[in-house]
Amino acid sequence: MSLLETSTISRVPIIISTGFPYQDRDRSSVCYLKPRDFSCKRFCGREMRFSHDFTTKSVARDESGRVGLDVMFPRDYSELLEQAKLATELALEDNKQLMEIEFPTAGLESVPGDGEGGIEMTGSMELIREFCECLVIPEKATRTRIFFPEANEVDFARKSSFEGALFKLDYLTKPSFFQDFGIVSKVKMADRVRAEDEMFMVAYPYFNVNEMLVVEELYNEAVMNTSRKMIIFNGELDRIRTGYYPSFFYPKLAALTKTLFPKMETVYYIHNFKGRNGGVLFRLAG
């Protein structure tokens, strides 16, 4: 059943947006905020419609043709993965080629850094396998290549979360003697790809700044102008979008906001905000 056919029950205000905060989209968005501050009438520069007291909502289309969609915030990771799967399927039906999935892994109300880095990555690894097994039919498993940040991570995955899996496991970078200083060995991505590959899943490419540059290379050399698809899974791309890495020191990384990111469809997104006026931004393609 499509997300557009789903009726949902919500206990908190939902904001329905016509776009994603970082760039214009051709699909509707859903933003979910905790009931702390309802004085704001605009969010990220776009008009919003507030709905405070309701139980069940379904799809509505206004005169402009926009679709308003209310979706229940996931209660657990099983429900989250099902929502992400359906949203990804809709994006694939629309022939989206480059997609992003982003959500917290240390708990649905957590923010990056709440959990220890290695634990968060391990959590993402386990969720990636579950997601791939939901999304990819068994006959296509060997045509799905999952790229982890580095070669050591692939070895760990084969012995743990991906033991016995049919997916192809690969890496973006190789460790070097100077890894503690952020220097890794570059991998030529064209050499990592096989002709039978149909989908690439890129796992949490945020530990080293070079990883997203390699992701762009992978897209340019092996995805663009082909029928292949690529999904970036928990890449913490907001760090780049919001200028966490100063463009003066990281010009190539900052350039991604003009080269790679405009081609990307954010199909599933949860971002928590802490503090006095904290809340949750929740979006899915639908």
TrEMBL record:
InterPro entries: DUF1995 (IPR018962), LPA3 (IPR044687). Residues 74-283 form the DUF1995 domain. Coiled coil: none annotated. This is DUF1995 domain-containing protein. It comes from Kingdonia uniflora.
